[in-house]
Design brief:
Layout: H1 7-11, H2 20-31, E1 35-41, E2 52-57, H3 61-79, E3 85-87, E4 94-98, E5 102-107, H4 109-115, H5 117-120, E6 125-129
Parallel strand pairs: 2-5
Antiparallel strand pairs: 1-2, 1-6, 3-4, 4-5
Helix pairs in contact: 2-3
């Protein structure tokens, strides 16, 4: 059974580590001092809900929120895209910014350790990002 491909899907280039939006997200995280930043390439995993996860952590809820908001701001400025969803703004431990093909997870260290997304998606290609 074939699914219809929209014109937007045809026009959208395939994401890579070097895509402008991926670079913008990582730069926005590092600018606000996000720690333990990784990108996970999920494209080869059939069950994956996105092409990439970008995960980072911060040691306090205020910084978690600041990182997520900076990602949203910089992606809008540099790439002209708004998130499909922005969840957890009221929470203190995990904020998720969803751009459909890329999902950003800003977490407190204990939350990241508890959910262990890296292990859950262990088949993904993982790349670390530092200043």
């Amino acid at each position: 059974m074939k699914t219809a491909i929209t014109e937007t899907q045809k026009a959208r280039p395939r994401l890579t580590q070097n895509s402008k939006i991926v670079k913008t997200i990582i730069a926005a995280i590092l600018e606000k001092k996000g720690e333990e930043v990784i990108s996970m390439n999920l494209k080869k995993i059939p069950e994956a809900i996105a092409d990439y996860f970008i995960i980072c952590e911060a040691n306090n809820p205020t910084l978690v929120k600041a990182i997520a908001e900076n990602v949203e701001k910089k992606v809008l400025e540099m790439c002209g895209e708004k998130p499909f969803k922005f969840e957890g703004k009221q929470g203190e431990k995990w904020i998720l910014v969803d751009y459909v093909d890329i999902v950003i997870h800003c977490m407190m260290p204990e939350t990241r350790g508890f959910y262990n997304l890296e292990e859950l998606w262990h088949e993904a290609e993982i790349k670390e990002h530092k200043d």
